[in-house]
Amino acid sequence: MVNRSLDVNKDPFRPIEDSEEMLGPEVPYMSAIGALMYLANCTRPDIAFATNLLARYSSSPTRRHWNGIKHIFRYLQGTIEFGLYYSRNPEVGLVGFADAGYLSDPHKARSQTGYVFTYGGTAISGVPKNKLWLQRLQIMRKSLLS
Questions:
Q1: pTM exceeding 0.85
Q2: Using CA atoms, how far apart are residues 54 and 48, in angstroms rounded to an integer?
Q3: How far apart (Å, rounded) are the C-alpha atoms in residues 42 and 50?
């Protein structure tokens, strides 16, 4: 994904500006977003952040956003051998990874966090929907590890 800038005016994924023209119906923006979301959810979690970022502009995409979608498709073409692999005999073990970005959305001045849990080396869950879900997951993880 293209590096984002904390300078709102230089961010390639900034909201539509008055001087920019929206894409017309001849550009399959929504179809492309749908296809990328399917891939991100099922086999390619490495494109999830970029896809969700571009999906925010589905109601008013610009040429800049369409170029971002084409960038993801070129990345997928170059990394076609990547994906999730589920082994027949997985090693037992629940592992969690977390990441946080301070002010990673400069337009709304919000930080973003995300994490993924793997079991047997393959992703089984992603970012939680609410705090209660996270607490239940932590309790379940503690009972599995002990």
A1: no
A2: 10
A3: 15
